[in-house]
Write a structure and sequence with these properties.
Helices cover 30% and strands 14% of the residues. It is an alpha/beta fold. The two termini are 26 Å apart. The model has no long low-confidence stretch (mean pLDDT 93).
């Protein structure tokens, strides 16, 4: 929703970037990219954090969207994570490790995009 507001001019011009924790590209089971069409109007850096098991964003559909938005967009894939960034126990990763990975990615994004 924040990207829609930004694309429509509804967010402050002091916004330096947008971070998407699981961008909802399409409804579950219905791959499409219509929900991303407004992103071409977003002129600030964007970080997409996306799990490989996210049923709301097929990575084969999201990758070309992010590629088309380069250099403003960066996709960071979280292996084994679903839409809420939960991972299966058998992955060997803990929820804390996943949160650390997300926090590190956001920290790097902020560092790259701060004056």
């Amino acid at each position: 929703m924040s990207s829609l507001a930004f694309a429509d001019g509804g967010l402050a011009t002091s916004t330096r970037g947008l971070v998407f924790f699981g961008f909802p590209l399409h409804p579950p089971g219905r791959t499409g990219v219509e929900r991303a069409e407004h992103l071409t109007a977003v002129d600030v850096p964007m970080l997409f954090l996306q799990g490989t098991r996210d049923k709301l964003a097929d990575l084969d559909a999201l990758r070309p969207v992010c590629d088309a938005l380069k250099p403003r967009a960066q996709l960071r894939v979280v292996e084994g994570a679903d839409h809420g960034f939960d991972v299966l126990v058998r992955s060997g990763r803990t929820p804390g490790e996943v949160r650390q990975e997300l926090a590190h990615a956001v920290s790097q994004f902020i560092d790259r995009n701060s004056p």
